[in-house]
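Help! Submission page says 'invalid entity' but I think these are all valid:
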Amino acid sequence: MNIPFPDLRPVTPEIIMTLSATALLILELIFKNKGVLAFIGILAAAAVMYIMPASMGETFGGMFISDSYSIFFKFIFIINLILTILISLRYIQRQKAEYGEYYSLLLFATAGMMLMASAKDLIILYLGLELMALSTYILAGIKRHDVKSNEAAIKYFLLGGFSSALLLYGISLLYGMTTTTDIYKIAEHLKATGVTTTLLLSMILIAVAFLFKIAAAPFHMWAPDVYEGAPTSITAFMSVGPKAAGFAVIGRVFYTAFQNIQTDWTTILIGIAILTMAVGNILAIVQTNIKRMLAYSSIAHAGYILLGIIAGTTEGLNAMMTYLFIYAFMNIGAFAIVIILDRGEELSDYEGLAKNRPLVAALMLVFMFSLTGIPPTAGFIAKFNLFTAVIKAGYTWLVIIAVMFSAISAYYYLRVVMNMYMKEMKQEAAIHLSPSLSLAILITVLMVLIIGIMPSMVIG
Amino acid sequence: MVPLNWYIGLSAVIFVIGMVGFIVRKNILIMLMSIELMLNSVNISLVAFSHYLQDLRGQVFVFFIITVAAAEAAIGLAILVALFKNKAAVHTDEIMEMKG
Amino acid sequence: MNPQIDKMTPGSYIPTDYLPVLIFMMIAVAFGAGTLLVGSLFRLRRPYKEKLTPYESGNPPVGEPRYRFSIKFYIIAMLFVIFDVEAVFLYPWAVVYNKIGLYALIEMMLFIVILLVGYAYAWKKEAFKWD
């Protein structure tokens, strides 16, 4: 028995990403200037982005698949990686957390997400998930002399470990029922055997594990604390990457493996989505720390995005992917503004910012409008597109609820705007400008406005 | 031969013990051990399935789970050591700085 | 579904092979509990200070029984756990090595190189230094 050499072409993006991450770990020992490492990281990400469209195909005995679905998600992950590196360059110096491992871990986490999006087998799925999760646990606690950062890391670690144990138990039940871990073969098998209690139990366990990852209520308790305690650049990274990866997996596993119990999981997810939108939007109102507010806002956005899965149509899935793509830009943009300010973590820090720093205030205004979903920003396009798809799928009442919660969300997003434009300035706001941070803000704000004005760029 | 149901029962019982331990206990080390207990219950059921279904995938999966669990434990301990250096506490009630 | 499983519905199986083990365990538990119970019923209770101190080979005990281990032990333990457990992949590889040839050799070399990178990193970060 001679095992043939596998076709490595579909996995080249992952291979390059992993090798660069490993190389960064070694180079970290050599270079004193950590900026070089960031530059190498961006180069690697750009290289991966360049070769990705050519990487279609299946390999490793059908355990790994690179299709248009996974490639789109990988684009989101790499944009997320590049923007995060750009916003962290100076910030982690300021925070005295400038370790070379920082960039290496970012690349490892991205490689994990890419594996998750491409997994056609539950073993690969688990490995990708853990690669992503273990890297982000460390990143959340990378300010190792800061108690809040430690606390964020330990909370994230404990709940992450718990949720992956639930996932594994669900997978083991599924394996016992079907004798396979291949997602598509599981689907075939389950069609033949029909619905059983064990199947429902395993579906619920797997669903709970991924709802933990995307921070949907009632599994969101970790998110606000972790987002507040982690360094802001990592908060931006975590609020986009792992969430998108979680949705990528939910999309693939639920639409294929659990196809024959679609009505069951749709019912569960509808309840979860409504609860998530309610918890995220209502609790965001009472926050005074902007990172916590954005944490609840990201919970609320997870609720909207879940509607795309609930729709159960290709259109719904596409709308969900577009939403995540746009969400990456507007959310990282908002966090970039938090980073640019010397003191920008409390809502009161934004009072009178418009008189003092008109440009920064105007940029924040764009991101807040976009997160609310006010035209002509990309956020409006994302929501409009998603809600149309969900209405077409026949869930008009669900969209009405979502729009109502969107209206509530205007209250807390626009409060930031009000603080900036209508309140008196308490003190001069110092800013830390750096070329990389400006570049990141430029990219995000341009994307938010261009997509907002010319939506045909991303839709279709 | 011991029937499959016994193994699945054992695995379910251990899993629930781990889950309850994680939820009830407040000591981070105990919570970490509870997670390990849950992972090992999964290993039991995977190996049992693998044996009864005459399919090796389950055992391959167990290898991966064991190694990932080791890495996870190392990272958990590392974070705990960092936390302990800053604030001598391993009790979840004592480390709560943030809430809301 | 595998036919083997279907045969084994709950309750269809009588574990006679394990009955002696069960009886043995019950006897063991009963013996342990029984001796402790009998001892507590018949022994005399005359405690005094010297009698209550912990026994350390006849010497008076020194210091606190609970003390903290140096944090260095944790680092060694973490490194041990990782490098020890990764060796698990070598076992199946070694068993079937002759059958799968060059591909397996290359794969395993890659794996070991990655482990070596980790080792070099830990070494350079002085994780193995005791002082």
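Support: the input was valid. A stray whitespace character was the problem, and the output above is from the cleaned input. Chain C touches chain A through 13 residues (CB under 8 Å).
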